Amino acid sequence: MAVIEINELTKTYHGTQALNGVSLRVERGEIFGIAGPNGAGKTTIVECVSGLRRPDGGTVRVLGLNPQNNRRALLQRIGAQLQEAALPDGIKVGEALRMYASFYDNPADWRAVMDEWGLTGRKGTRFASLSGGWKQRLFIALALVGDPEVVLLDELTTGLDPDARRTTWVLIRAMRDRGVTVVLVTHFMDEAEALCDRIAIVSGGRVIAEGSPRELITEARAASLEDAYFALTGRN
Ligand code: ADP
């Protein structure tokens, strides 16, 4: 069953066409990657999914709801990773989790989430004192504390060192294995290939390819073989 259905989405910002007819389906329980270069439109898609942006055209349904009309109901059922600026430097790990849990009608037990993500030993550590990897781990825990069905992660590993990136991948897989549907935005193709069940590659506000990592690699190989053939033979 599709948890997210996007049809023919369009969005223009002051003359810049950010989305030019994007259609996608995200199935329940998968890690779905939205990959592509900077400026492709990835964040705009995710913002339309979470109800932060109003599309100019097309439709979005998340868990059967229109994010624009049902934002409050939807926010109870989806988790979104925060940007760093969203937490005050002085807040402690335990306080942040307790506070975010209080935003939800039916949250997870924040202490259990803290424990599960290995944060109990840092319960009293202030946000500003955490390393990049631990901040990301906290953001993941905060995205899960509402016990969401769908989690949206936008460039979660940008700026992390390779070890912290790999640890984050393990955590994302663990999320999926618990039945959460994960939408992962990344401009790292290796990350999308390593983690995602299916990937949509977005460029210039359009989905230019979609499929499992294996399908995309096979397609890309076929395309580059064709290019090589045309280059060699001069035929097109
Ligand atoms: P991505 O996440 O793939 O980097 P975005 O969705 O952020 O892409 O941006 C898509 C396009 O829309 C880019 O050309 C970007 O410059 C433009 N854009 C995004 N947000 C705004 C905004 N608030 N105002 C004007 N242009 C924007």
TrEMBL record:
<dbReference type="Pfam" id="PF00005">
    <property type="entry name" value="ABC_tran"/>
</dbReference>
<keyword id="KW-1278">Translocase</keyword>
<dbReference type="InterPro" id="IPR003593">
    <property type="entry name" value="AAA+_ATPase"/>
</dbReference>
<keyword id="KW-1003">Cell membrane</keyword>
<keyword id="KW-0067">ATP-binding</keyword>
<dbReference type="GO" id="GO:0016887">
    <property type="term" value="F:ATP hydrolysis activity"/>
</dbReference>
<dbReference type="InterPro" id="IPR050763">
    <property type="entry name" value="ABC_transporter_ATP-binding"/>
</dbReference>
<dbReference type="InterPro" id="IPR003439">
    <property type="entry name" value="ABC_transporter-like_ATP-bd"/>
</dbReference>
<dbReference type="InterPro" id="IPR017871">
    <property type="entry name" value="ABC_transporter-like_CS"/>
</dbReference>
<protein>
    <submittedName>
        <fullName>ABC-2 type transport system ATP-binding protein</fullName>
    </submittedName>
</protein>
<feature type="domain" description="ABC transporter">
    <location>
        <begin position="4"/>
        <end position="229"/>
    </location>
</feature>
<dbReference type="InterPro" id="IPR027417">
    <property type="entry name" value="P-loop_NTPase"/>
</dbReference>
<dbReference type="GO" id="GO:0046677">
    <property type="term" value="P:response to antibiotic"/>
</dbReference>
<keyword id="KW-0813">Transport</keyword>
<dbReference type="GO" id="GO:0005524">
    <property type="term" value="F:ATP binding"/>
</dbReference>
<keyword id="KW-0046">Antibiotic resistance</keyword>
<keyword id="KW-0547">Nucleotide-binding</keyword>
<dbReference type="GO" id="GO:0005886">
    <property type="term" value="C:plasma membrane"/>
</dbReference>
<keyword id="KW-0472">Membrane</keyword>
